Amino acid sequence: MKSFKNFGADLEAQSVALEESSLSRIYDHTKNRNIGIITANRDSNPPDVNLGLNRKLESHIRDAGYGYIHLDGDYVENHGTPEARRVGGERAYLVIGKEGNDDGALKGFLRKHGEAFDQDSVLHKAAGEKDAKLIGTTRFEDHSPKPGDWNPPKYHQEVSVGEYHPNRAAE
């Protein structure tokens, strides 16, 4: 399994337009808070369906009392299966949780909604912890890791992707 640093190196090939103020804002919002990244996109859905699902997810995020920052990213859906493919330009959300210990509330929210919106995994970083973790939110029949390849975590498995650096792009 690749480390977060290696995973980030894969992302460097992508063009990322971040303003200094954007990085500063993200850093301020996340340094002492629980945070997560989630989307409702599935590449198999038409764009209008994904738009509707993401609006519904936005509503769930707000209704739960969280804030969010829009992100545009990409991900390998169905990794490790014959249907695997890189999906680009999908809308994702950096969910801003509460400061300090929230007794797993944001992690539970992310897990529940990752499952509900058919996501392979979600990302979570608890306040006070350095490492971010991917949490598997779908059941795959075959999770046999391939040498040098990155595979999504198994259902409800938490896998550290390394230290979270909100003030650095593609790290």
Descriptive account of the structure:
It is a single chain. The protein is of the alpha+beta class. It is 28% helix and 29% strand. The chain has helices spanning 4-11, 20-30, 47-63, 105-116; strands at 33-38, 67-77, 85-99, 121-125, 131-136, 158-163. It has a 6-stranded antiparallel sheet, with helices on both faces. The longest helix is centred in the N-terminal third of the chain and has 17 residues, at 47-63. The protein is globular and about 40 Å long. 25% of the residues are buried.
**Which structural category do the helix and sheet elements fall into?**
alpha+beta
Tell me about the largest β-sheet.
6 strands, antiparallel
What's the tally of helices? Answer: 4
Count the beta strands: 6
Strand content: 25-35%
User: How far from one another are the termini?
Assistant: 16 Å
Helix/strand order: HHEHEEHEEE
Q: Low-confidence parts, pLDDT < 50 over ≥5 residues?
A: 1-18
Short description:
The chain has helices at 4-11, 20-30, 47-63, 105-116, and strands at 33-38, 67-77, 85-99, 121-125, 131-136, 158-163. It is α+β, with helices and mostly antiparallel strands and 171 residues long. The longest helix has 17 residues, at 47-63.
